[in-house]
């Protein structure tokens, strides 16, 4: 699962989609991707922390948060963006992308803890 930066902007979303495809190759089409910003709006300095928590909770609860209000995605944005409704999924590994102004970018990887 990838919690995308997903700002719903014409520059960011296709660029992030291209980066996911470049990183994962054809496997990108098998990975659920969503943007919690679709529900919270952009929280600026707080966005990365809140989205990291949402990503961990997807692992803990086995449920991917949806990308709400996804009606007409850019033609370059052709991955599985989990539109409109959350989805049950046994998430083993997840990534949270956060991109800040001035090139302050981070991708956090989380893995399910198994005792």
Automatic annotation (TrEMBL):
Transferase in keyword set: yes
Keyword hit for Transferase: yes
GO molecular function: 3-oxoacyl-[acyl-carrier-protein] synthase activity
UniProt cross-references to PROSITE patterns, sorted A to Z: KS3_2
One Pfam family this sequence matches: Ketoacyl-synt_C
Gene3D superfamilies per record: 3.40.47.10
One GO cellular component term noted in the UniProt record for this chain: cytosol
Coiled-coil region: none
Source species, domain of life: Bacteria
UniProt keyword list: Transferase
Classification via PANTHER family: 3-OXOACYL-[ACYL-CARRIER-PROTEIN] SYNTHASE, MITOCHONDRIAL, POLYKETIDE SYNTHASE-RELATED
Annotated protein name in UniProt: Beta-ketoacyl-[acyl-carrier-protein] synthase II
Phylogenetic lineage: Bacteria, Bacillati, Cyanobacteriota, Cyanophyceae, Oscillatoriophycideae
């Amino acid at each position: 699962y990838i919690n995308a930066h997903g700002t719903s902007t014409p520059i960011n979303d296709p660029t992030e989609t291209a980066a996911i495809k470049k990183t994962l190759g054809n496997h990108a089409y098998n990975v659920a991707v969503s943007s919690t910003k679709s529900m919270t709006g952009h929280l600026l300095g707080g966005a990365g922390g809140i989205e990291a928590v949402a990503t961990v909770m997807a692992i803990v609860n086995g449920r991917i948060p949806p990308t709400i209000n996804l009606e007409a995605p850019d033609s370059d944005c052709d991955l599985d963006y989990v539109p409109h409704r959350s989805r049950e999924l046994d998430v083993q590994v997840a990534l949270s992308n956060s991109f800040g102004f001035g090139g302050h970018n981070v991708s956090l990887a989380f893995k399910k803890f198994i005792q």
